[in-house]
């Protein structure tokens, strides 16, 4: 453990040990960071899952799990894995908060937010305001448009403001903060993204602390204002970055699969399954990180203590032992929710019910307002830790 702050310090693997692991795991040794980030290279992860489901990945300086069951096991508390590591890039980007601590501190940070984000409370408090806001944004769209800027970003930021009770008026600025946070969560060794994330974190914290007197969360917890602001930063991350991804990716897939689009237009109840399947097929959160506090054995591979272990959510969600014909987009897939898109264990996504509801409402309102939608162009979803189309141009017809 680090003597300065109590966080686990990842071990340094010797060149000799690295060479041994490369020989033992030749498929993983050939994987690059681009394979984990670029659109169209998902087959590399599929190949890893079939040949080396738990592998040494020199490009990451750690291990990668691509099979669903060992990935799920790694995320459960009984695995002994931790997020409290000096090298945690989420902590470096977003600071110390519920996603970067374990045990009692994690529970203290998370507990005040549990009730407001339960399914019933979420639907009761937010469904109608979200629907009204979606309609307002859609009404403004006339003709061919880039949907990220015209709808996905303002929708995500605006709903985040409603949910946490803070006036976040500058959509472009807030969205920019979270783009900086996401860009810093990559293991490239470049200090510049972290510098930008630190600057964004300081500015966003000032905005949050100034507005906390209007947030209902404060009066219902014993957290200090700075602690509340730290939790809101990550709550907003889920409400902004990942909602944009789920809305854009679901619509993209429906437009690319006309038969599925026709089915959801004929029966809007199928949209729930379409959203679940889109999130499985291309998860907004593509990579989850952990560190071993003690040795762990998965798929016959023993990983030592204080080692970095990554979970490829994309690969786990495409595991054919769990999902039949996993590359097919199937809006009626009965087990689409068995993916790891919302993580698992103690750190499972706090806003899972809100995320699903918000995405379904957005799609419902688009399909109602636009009897036909033409996909003009889309940049396929890419990204290391977070994946979504960077731009998507549609031509809707009222």
Architecture overview:
With 398 residues, the chain is an alpha+beta fold. The protein has a single domain (15-397), classed as Orthogonal Bundle (Cytochrome p450), CATH 1.10.630.10. Helix content is 52%, strand content 11%. It is built from 17 helices and ten strands. The strands form three sheets. It has a five-stranded mixed sheet with strand order 1-2-8-5-3, sandwiched between helices. A three-stranded antiparallel sheet has the order 4-10-9, covered by helices on one side. The protein has a two-stranded antiparallel sheet with strand order 6-7. A hairpin with a 4-residue loop joins strand 1 (54-57) and strand 2 (62-65). Helix 13 packs across helix 17. It starts with 14 loop residues before the first helix and ends with a strand. The relative contact order is 0.17.
Number of spatially distinct domains: 1
Question: At the first level of CATH, what is the class?
Answer: Mainly Alpha
The CATH homologous superfamily is named: Cytochrome P450
How many whole angstroms does the radius of gyration measure? 21 Å
